[in-house]
Amino acid sequence: MSTFNLPDLGEGLQDAEIVAWHVGEGDHVVVDEPLVSVETEKAVVEVPSPRSGYIKRLLGKPHERVKVGAPIVEFDDATPVDTGAVVGHLAVSPEVFTGAAPKPAQKAISEIPPAMPKQISASPAVRALARQRGIDLSRIIGSGPNGMITRADVEHAGARTASGVSSLTGIRRTMAINMTKAHSEVVPATVWDQADVGSWWTGHDDVTIRLIRAVVAGCRAAPILNSWYDGRAMTIQTHDHIDVGIAVDFEDGLIVPVVRHVDEQEPAALRAEVNRLKTAARARSIAASDLRNPTVTLSNFGMLAGLHAALIVMPPQVAIVGAGRIFRLAVACDNGASFTSILPLSLTFDHRVVTGGEAGRFMRAMIGDLGKAA
Amino acid sequence: MAETTLIQAVNQALARAMAEDRRVIVLGEDVGADGGVFRATDSLFTRFGADRVRDTPMSEAAIVGLSIGLAAAGFRPVAEIQFTGFIYPAIDQIANHASRLRTRTRGHLQCPMVVRAPCGGGIHAPEHHSESPEAMFTNIPGLRVIIPSSPRRAYGLLLAAIRGSDPVVFMEPTKLYRGAREEMVDDGKELPVDRCFVLREGRDITLVAWGAMVPEALQCAAHCVSKGVSAEVIDVATLKPLDGETIVNSVKKTGRCVIVHEAALTGGYGGEIAARVARDAFGSLLAPIERVTGYDTVMPLPKLEHIYLPDAARIGSAVERAMAYA
Amino acid sequence: MNQPVLGAKFEIGFTRYLDAAGQLVRPLPKDADPTSLKALYRALVRTRVFDAKAIALQRTGRLGTYASSLGQEAVSVGAASAMRADDILVPSFREHGGQLWRGATLAELFQYWGGDERGNHFVNAPCDFPNCVPVGSQAPHAAGVALAVKLRNEPRAVVCIFGDGATSKGDVYEAMNFAGVWKLPVVFIISNNEWAISVPRRLQSAAQTLAQKAIAAGIPGEQVDGNDAIGVRSTVGAALDRARRGEGACVIEALTYRLGDHTTADDASRYRQDSEVTPHWKEDPIKRLHQYLSASGLWTNNEESALLKELNAEIDEAAEVYLATPLPDPSVMFDFTYAALPADLERQKRDMLHTLSPARERQAGE
């Protein structure tokens, strides 16, 4: 930074009044360019620039008197920044934004299609018409291009052809699709056994909560049964939490709501959650999010009939537990025989990744837990 | 009533406008003694003289630029560009000046100028003579873009364009110059330049077109009757500012829409109309909106021109696709 | 002897009254009386004071990018001073002095450069065109306006000013060509300041003079010392007289120098040596007229001091008024797009107002 002083104006003059500046702060000036006009008693004098450069500061205002030799202008010696423009102003961004999204923490291998179809292809007009007529679009097969449901489809909804043949719709259709897929992928094996529940079974209890607890015990004994297996990539993801799918049967078919993190919940909370899900399922108002991604499934089919069953493992899960009808059995004990209540258990597992031994340990743990009085 | 072709209708409109308003000046290449290469300005030179019907040097940019100056200074110039294929040098003057003179001076200066040019193919012309650049102009704020499809509409819309105070790009489908004829009267009646024209009412599907595609759409609609399909046909005519309401109301009634234009698909004006219909008639749509357009290729020379240009048959296929959504 | 057969031959004349030292090199024109000369001087200084203020405002973020006319004031002031009130000026974007002479207010100029469309029209010069940014594209407009006054048989003429760079644009030649073949009353002034941003004159055209481009259009071309306000006024005045007499158009190349940067966003020291610029300060149009007036006893120190003070005060005050001007109502973006607001645009305007505030949207609907 260098200053320029008011030069000698001659004729013994000591000072002058600034009349007007001809340049401003920040201006680039060249040698001889007029900087300021100053007035003395004799004349109005233009003071030219002594050098090229950039004006940093003007050291005086119009009407102020400046002494000869006093600084009037500060020049800027710093190299000016190239603005890189000829019009307008290009802002410089303080940070570099690459537009990349943060990586997700965990990814599900695949999503199980929920029992409810998740996507109906129909134009807004057709949806409105269906709503108006109280017709469930999920029960309709679209005859339009790409399977889209047309207005005609809605208008003809529910009609059967003369031969009584009708297409699968809704959750039955979904079940058909899912079971076919499971059959083509899974290599199932089943182990059957039974648990003595005489110490707590009164004949009327809903065993669901005890069964869930038993499943937790089994998962702790053999965690591999609480996993997802991707047969294409041949990767296995063993979960640190247990989300149990509870098969619920009702008139329209089978759906499997999922109770989350059963290993962390108290029985009362589990009870409440199971009730909520069953109610929602029956009311057909269950959310798609409640049907997704169980880590292991439980089917209490014994409420109807059946002791043991080889159930279907639904990939990417690797296990499904079946609970059959509780029956009375005479068992040997120290002083002869006594009757107790027996709960038959079935465990079907995907033998591509689960061994018989692991299944056995799971089963043993379940039996042990179910045998406890409380 | 006399049977009038579209080019005759243009000529009549110009003559009437010049007769009723001394401020109307016609200028362009070959518009004077020759009466215009398509005879659009036939006889105007004899009738109104060299001051008002001016043969210009070959300078599309200056023809339009000079017209802007004329318009700002109180005249009503009607500049002819010989073919839309040669309008490109004038786009600077249209986009940077004509279209924004009013707004940038807050109405103190205005540009009541009409630029007329023949557009479109189907006339077996050499290269560059079959262009459809209307989409370029529709994206310029402040401009009116008009494409008539019949003698009566060419007459009425051109009169309105000349009498109005906005800059107008008026593109005349060359194929219809002599290809379209109808009975009409030179009565000085203008047509609204803020309205689409519903040419045919229908219940099942809306066909939206402009220019030389309008007769194709009408022909298709006639064929549709035998297939039990009732088609509504709309001539957009004034592309900008767009009367979206007429089109949307139609699709709300029919639920299906096919848009037809000669210009290439991508970036074509059909996309704009489709977006408006999708937004404003969303709840009524039964089928996806279809566009039947020229391909994203350069307009071919006459040997393949018929492959490129949409016609009633191609529109019919689109109608079938839309009607599959029963 | 064999005389060469010439298809055409031409000369480009050069006019100057006042040289760089402020000496008359030929007798003053008849209309150059002391009053008119002092008016010229005042206008030149006023332009420069405005110019400095505009730059200062831009530097402090209160004006947008601004194109200084430093050193070139005599071209537009000289030309404007030769025009009648009802003539029409079609400028480029460096004719602030000419606009001010013709009655543009300081507020209007500050508004234009400050980014407000209200500066695009001059209340006191309603037929003048606003600044033209696409270089040279105003030349056809000027020809069109000239055609209009000719068709109406009005004794008016058009002055179109553009720079040396503009003479390379097709529009400029096309306009000159129209003006030639239709004998239009338009004077094309080339304000040759030797620079088109960073491109010097020698890289702009191989033509020996820019004025001779007129010859190709069949109209006369001449040069004048663009820093000699008296010369510019006289030359342009004569050209306007000829135009009004129906003798058609011409081209006047005013030779000057751009002492400042192209715009406030440009730094000329990147491409031009400061040492090249310094000698041109000796040719300063204000300095030479000041020199002539003082030496002739027509201008005193007191008058100089008073003038500087008065003009600085006037321009400072105008700047304050500009800075205090409220923003325009955003509705104007829509209202003047067409003669009448189309329904389509009305919907967009409502949406825009709604995003600003729902209350304003309701207000607009009333």
Walkthrough of the structure:
- The complex is a heterotrimer of chains A (374), B (326) and C (366).
- Chain A is of the alpha+beta class and 374 residues long.
- Chain A contains 6 helices and 19 strands.
- In chain A, the strands form 5 sheets. In chain A, strands 9, 12, 15, 16, 17, 18 and 19 form a 7-stranded mixed β-sheet that branches.
- In chain A, a hairpin with a 2-residue loop joins strand 18 and strand 19.
- In chain A, helix 4 (208-221) crosses helix 6.
- The N and C termini of chain A lie far apart (89 Å).
- By secondary structure, chain B is of the alpha/beta class.
- Chain B has 2 domains: 2-184, Rossmann fold (3-Layer(aba) Sandwich); 197-323, Rossmann fold.
- Chain B contains 13 helices and 14 strands.
- In chain B, the strands form 3 sheets. A 7-stranded mixed β-sheet of chain B has the order 3-2-4-5-7-6-12, with helices on both faces.
- In chain B, helix 11 links the parallel strand 13 and strand 14 (290-294).
- Chain B is globular and about 60 Å long.
- The model of chain B has no long low-confidence stretch (mean pLDDT 96).
- In chain C, helix 1 runs antiparallel to helix 11, helix 5 (138-151) runs parallel beside helix 6 and helix 14 packs antiparallel against helix 15 (358-365).
- Chain C is globular, with a radius of gyration of 22 Å.
- Chain C has 2 domains: 13-324, Thiamin diphosphate (ThDP)-binding fold, Pyr/PP domains (Rossmann fold, 3-Layer(aba) Sandwich); 332-365, no CATH class.
- With 366 residues, chain C is α/β, with parallel strands linked by helices.
- In chain C, the strands form 2 sheets. Chain C has a 6-stranded parallel β-sheet, with helices on both faces. A two-stranded antiparallel ribbon of chain C has the order 5-6.
What are the key terms here?
heterotrimer; A: 374 residues; alpha+beta; OB fold (Dihydrolipoamide Acetyltransferase, E2P); Dihydrolipoamide Transferase; Chloramphenicol Acetyltransferase; seven-stranded mixed β-sheet; four-stranded antiparallel β-sheet; 19 strands; 26% strand; elongated; C: 366 residues; alpha/beta; Rossmann fold; 2 domains; two-stranded antiparallel ribbon
